[in-house]
Design goal:
Layout lengths: L8 E4 L6 E6 L2 E6 L5 E3 L4 E3 L38 E4 L7 E4 L5
Antiparallel strand pairs: 1-2, 2-3, 4-5, 6-7
Protein name: Chitin-binding type-2 domain-containing protein
GO cellular component, one term: extracellular region
Keywords: Chitin-binding, Disulfide bond, Glycoprotein, Repeat, Signal
Length: 105
């Protein structure tokens, strides 16, 4: 069982950055963020990864950089200007992101 840090509020679910704990009267429930959003522990809300949501640092093994990931940076999912740097969520690991700059990872 999960112990809530306080009786109510939203708290990070460290196993999956697209989820969070919703605590009500000390009872924790795992809740999903909307599609493409991640939980921001600083605000207590789901947010766009591009808003510099703090993540737990992880070491990315070389096998995560597969050739099929090369096209991840061809289109900015947030609209942005061409050439603008943006983050793209790793398709297999929710707590990993690629930094895209001018079409390259």
């Amino acid at each position: 069982p999960v112990t809530c840090p306080s009786a109510s509020g939203q708290f990070a679910y460290t196993a999956d950055c697209a989820k969070f704990y919703q605590c009500d009267n000390g009872v924790a429930t795992v809740t999903n963020c909307q599609s493409q959003l991640v939980f921001n522990p600083q605000t207590g809300y789901c947010d766009w990864p591009a808003n510099k949501v703090p993540q737990t640092e992880i070491r990315i093994p070389p096998e995560m950089f597969k050739p099929q990931f090369a096209n991840l940076c061809t289109q900015n999912p947030y609209g942005g200007n061409p050439g603008e740097t943006f983050l793209v969520r790793h398709p297999e690991y929710c707590n990993a992101f690629f930094t895209c700059t001018e079409g390259f990872i």
